[in-house]
Amino acid sequence: MSSYYLKKEECIMCGLCQRKAPTCIDYDDNSIVCWKNTDQDEYLPTKEEEQPLANAAKCCPTHAIRQRKN
Ligand code: SF4
């Protein structure tokens, strides 16, 4: 199981990722991607969230959602 982190400075506010992983991803007051349930940099998805979050990372046009390689 891998954690993910966000490169917020690369988010172009397209809104695709939350549709893919609505339990993990939200947007801040400036419409920039953030985690839905934590302010921490890294997010470890639950087993059920793994595939949706992987799909969100894959669909991001700027690769702002990144998997931490262990
Ligand atoms: S898909 Fe990428 S660019 Fe689009 S809102 Fe999500 S993090 Fe930002």
TrEMBL record:
SUPFAM superfamilies in alphabetical order: 4Fe-4S ferredoxins
Domain of life: Bacteria
One of the Pfam families matching this protein, by short name: Fer4_15
Domain 4Fe-4S ferredoxin-type: 2-30
Protein name: 4Fe-4S ferredoxin-type domain-containing protein
Species per Swiss-Prot/TrEMBL record: Catellicoccus marimammalium M35/04/3
Organism lineage: Bacteria, Bacillati, Bacillota, Bacilli, Lactobacillales
